[in-house]
Write a structure and sequence with these properties.
The complex is a heterodimer. In chain A, about 80% of the residues lie in helices and about 0% in strands. The longest helix of chain A is centred in the first third of the chain and has 45 residues. Chain A is an all-alpha fold. Chain A has 13 helices and no strands. In chain B, the strands form two sheets. In chain B, strands 6-7-8-3-9-10 form a six-stranded mixed β-sheet, with helices on both faces. Chain B has a four-stranded antiparallel β-sheet with strand order 2-1-4-5, with helices on one face. The chains are: A mainly alpha, B alpha/beta. Chains A and B meet through helix 10 and helix 11 of A and strand 6 and helix 3 of B.
């Protein structure tokens, strides 16, 4: 009883209130008056998911048929009846060599998802075997002052997810380190505000691609002569610079618009500058700072894909791009898998920020 | 109705009522001007008022006449355009904890508990005390306002009336020389208002901190005050009349309401406000 109560609180805290309703359903605790809320919170979302998958299935099927008919008609025109018939048989047999290239169906995407997981397991096993094999040798090499031999095989889909998360968090952290202190200074001082305002207004709308190019120009020269792969550095700095503006602007706004009553209290009590900032100004602007940080994290995740692609930095962005270039039979399905993974991780990141906000800030937010 | 000059009143009252003749707060030729595109707007002019130590003065006047402006000038939150304000003979420069303020809105930091809100002031004023001494002071005043069960509640979780109680505790806990109250009960329902008036006057009877309070409520003005100061309507507002309330302290609401002079005082104030 006590444990389940805590679970309920935690779920609500994280903006995942539907867990409570689900749990009540399974524990048989659902009352009659809760039926409406059960319908709204569980049945309606489930129905809409089923409807979505159904529409997707039908749409994919229709696109598949259009593409197949076009292919057959083209074969008929270019190569004659025999080739067209052969192609028809080939498509019907489901042979991967002649499948129409179009939007994959939900079933194909699910199949690709599983195959990506299988692939991950194979690569993991491979990696473990490699580590075992080289363990003794690496120990010797380290003892002799040489670099250890590392696994250089292709990363699995799961590895790429983690690599992307690393990049996004490094970028987010950089944005946090720059934007929050700078925003506080700008918010506190009208002089600094006018000094930085043009800068913010001009750089805020710059596109991720241009940021990437700018960072590339600088980092390339700074890291000149270094043998390390700079693509990770370039991509996380670009992500940080792209995404920090929302935090900068919101922090400055939060700090400069602290309730006048609080400032008057601070004045009457003659609080020192340090105390005024940490006891009054910052806590009161936390809700706006967090709004900024939430936008920053979601922007970071969004631009990450484009920037990884440009920087050739391993991760989901590069995965999507390589699958698109690859053009294998299941490439399209893999791209859709990546799309869902990106979306779900974006959603979880947003919830993570909400949880931190509700934990730190006095202003409790409900999930939207 | 004749407007009695302030000096005659002061002399009269000094002579008979107060044990202490020391002037705590002295407003001299006070002036406040707001520049506007159409020329200067004079809110207050030639405002003279002396308030003695341990005196409770309420200020009454029509909305917008400049009462709040005057109070925030005393608090040091609003610059003075002319004349001066002195506390115990020393001209004030900006705000400071020698003049505690209870604002109209409770103005508590919602992210702090009620204890932390009171401690914020206590820490400033008694920096040399030990932490436990300071906590004791804060807790003492919170108990005085009836919040002994809410030390660790966040201010945002308290009702408006409870928040204003914390505001009262915060103001008394820094032991100011002058207490400034800007319509502190204006936002409360009449039951809560009565409760808080009782709490305020109970603490005040113990601490006897010189108090200046703005109010719109004639009954509140009479119940709490030694003198009720009536301000003329702006622009160029000044002191219009001063009414001395000659009830003995400690007062109870019942004894005040049943006193023969109560309706005389009340009529005096209402006559002033209606003319």
């Amino acid at each position: 009883m006590k444990a389940s109560l805590t679970l309920g609180k935690v779920s609500k805290f994280m903006g995942l209130g539907f867990f409570i309703t689900l749990k009540d359903l399974f524990t048989g605790k659902l009352e009659k008056e809760d039926l409406k809320s059960f319908l709204r919170k569980v049945v309606v979302p489930l129905a809409s998911i089923i409807l979505f998958i159904g529409l997707w299935h039908l749409g994919a099927k229709s696109l598949y048929n259009t593409e197949a008919e076009f292919k057959i008609a083209k074969a008929l025109q270019d190569q004659g009846q025999a080739a067209a018939d052969a192609l028809k048989v080939c498509i019907a047999s489901g042979d991967s060599s002649c499948q129409p290239n179009t939007l994959p169906s939900p079933a194909q995407v699910w199949e690709s998802f599983q195959s990506l997981l299988r692939d991950h397991n194979i690569i993991s096993a491979d990696k473990a075997a490699f580590a075992e094999k080289t363990a003794a040798l690496n120990e010797k090499r380290i003892a002799a002052g040489q670099d250890p031999i590392v696994y250089t095989g292709r990363p699995s889909f799961v590895d790429q997810i983690f690599r992307s998360l690393q990049t996004v968090f490094a970028g987010f952290f950089l944005a946090f380190l720059i934007a929050v202190p700078l925003g506080i200074f700008i918010g506190l001082s009208p002089t600094l505000k006018s000094a930085f305002n043009w800068f913010i207004q001009i750089f805020k709308p710059v596109s991720p691609v241009v940021w990437y190019l700018l960072v590339f120009m600088i980092v390339k020269t700074v890291l000149i002569g270094s043998s390390n792969d700079s693509s990770f550095t370039i991509s996380f700095i670009s992500v940080g610079l792209c995404s920090m503006w929302a935090t900068l602007v919101n922090t400055a706004m939060g700090v400069s618009s602290v309730d006048k009553d609080y400032i008057n209290v601070a004045k009457v009590l003659k609080l020192g500058t340090f105390q005024k900032i940490f006891k009054v100004v910052l806590p009161s602007s936390l809700p706006l700072i967090f709004t900024g940080l939430k936008i920053t994290l979601s922007v970071a995740w969004m631009v990450l894909i484009a920037i990884e692609l440009l920087a050739q930095s391993p991760g989901l962005g590069l995965f999507v791009w390589e699958e698109f270039q690859n053009g294998a039979n299941d490439s399209n399905a893999k791209i859709i898998v990546a799309m869902f993974v990106i979306g779900i991780i974006g959603f979880l990141l947003d919830r993570l920020m909400l949880t931190i906000q509700n934990w730190v800030s006095f202003d409790k937010q409900d999930a939207i | 109705m004749s407007i009695i000059t302030e000096n005659t009143i002061t002399k009269e009252v000094l002579a008979k009522t107060f044990p202490s003749n020391e002037v705590m707060l002295d407003l001299k030729d006070l002036k406040k001007v707001y520049p506007t595109p159409k020329g200067d707007y004079v809110v207050l002019e030639d405002l003279n008022l002396q308030i003695r130590k341990e005196e409770f003065v309420t200020i009454i006047g029509h909305s917008g006449c400049g009462k709040t402006t005057m109070l925030s000038m005393i608090a040091g939150l609003n610059p003075i355009s002319g004349g001066n304000i002195a506390v115990l003979g020393k001209h004030i420069k900006g705000p400071g904890p020698d003049r505690g303020v209870i604002f109209q809105a409770p103005s508590l930091m919602p992210w702090m508990t009620s204890l932390e809100n009171v401690m914020l002031g206590v820490n400033q004023v008694f920096p040399h005390g030990t932490k436990s001494q300071r906590t004791d002071i804060a807790k003492y005043y919170l108990q005085k306002v009836g919040l002994e069960d809410s030390f660790h509640k966040k201010a945002a979780e308290l009702s408006q009336g409870m928040q204003q109680r914390v505001g009262i505790a915060r103001a008394f806990a820094i032991k100011p020389k002058v207490l400034l109250l800007d319509e502190p009960f204006g936002m409360l329902d009449s039951l809560t208002r009565g409760e808080l008036q009782d709490i305020l006057i109970e603490i005040w009877n113990k601490e006897k901190i010189t108090a200046v309070m703005i109010t719109h409520d004639v009954d509140e003005a009479i119940f709490l005050a030694d003198r009720v100061v009536m301000m003329t309507s702006g622009p160029r507002a000044k002191i219009g009349d001063i009414l001395e309330i000659d009830f003995k302290r400690p007062r109870t609401r019942k004894s005040v309401l049943e006193h023969d002079d109560y309706y005389k005082y009340r009529k005096h104030l209402i006559d002033f406000l209606e003319h």
